Amino acid sequence: MALVESLQKAIDYMEEHLLDPITISDIAEQANVSPFHFQRIFMILTDMSVGEYLRRRRLTLAAQELSSTDRKIIDLAYHYGYDTPESFSRAFRKQHGITPSEARKGQGRLQSYNRLMIQVNLRGAEPMNYRIVKRSAFEVIGIKRGFPCGNGEMGIPGVPDFWEEVNGNGSAARLLELNNGQIKGLLGVCANHNVENNRTDYWIAAESSGETSDQFSKLHFPAAKWAVFEAIGPAPEAIVDTTKKIYSEWFPSNSYEPAEIATFEAYIDPDPYKKDSYNEIWIPIK
């Protein structure tokens, strides 16, 4: 339950400071996790980014004021964090489908996004297969590329094309040949998230204790305890579904919390698209 309580504390902080210029670092500090981990967990559980949640909530409150007060639209724009009435009107129309002036006249419908409350749903009809693994430090080698994290998307835009490129040019086959570690298959690793420009490094890699070459770089993982979850089924859907269950069902039901180490997906099955494809999600825990 610790994760649920930490997330709710962060959400309460966002609501208390909804009209203040808060940063993702300020918010994540309330949950006692890194900005990268907080954004990732928040997006998995809510299907939207932190920035999107703040925007939706501010525009919901703005619509309520438009409907119930005579406050000038220009004053509302500045009050809810917009530099100009024009930028406020564009954002308002995008969310509500009508302009602030139309909302004031009672024309059209408004969309309300209510305050989030994190709750634990009693499920468990489908068991989650996992194991706890203690590992000493290990290294992976692979290809690293920086990507924007996207807005309101669980996945990282551009990563599927990256995989297609690496599979097509022979790099994936070469990495599999160099794999001499405990974790089989290719790894998809997110690391070194940059909060300021909302970018992250994504690695396609394999565990290997060998020397690197000009083609591949090396990434170090410290000694840690890992929760390793099975993801059975076509990988694109199974990885997403299992990840959501991990954060919405498994963590709230356990005393573990995510550790501040990069998570990764292990694509073990040679055919990741078949109906019973076996792959894994590795999450460091504390």
From TrEMBL:
InterPro entries: AraC_E-bd, GyrI-like, Homeodomain-like_sf, HTH_AraC, HTH_AraC-typ_CS, MarA-like, Reg_factor_effector_dom_sf, Tscrpt_reg_AraC-type_HTH
Keywords annotated in UniProt: DNA-binding, Transcription, Transcription regulation
Entry keyword Transcription: yes
Keyword Lipid biosynthesis: no
Domain HTH araC/xylS-type: 8-106
PROSITE patterns attached to this UniProt entry: HTH_ARAC_FAMILY_1, HTH_ARAC_FAMILY_2
Stated name of the protein: AraC family transcriptional regulator
Source organism of the structure: Siminovitchia fordii
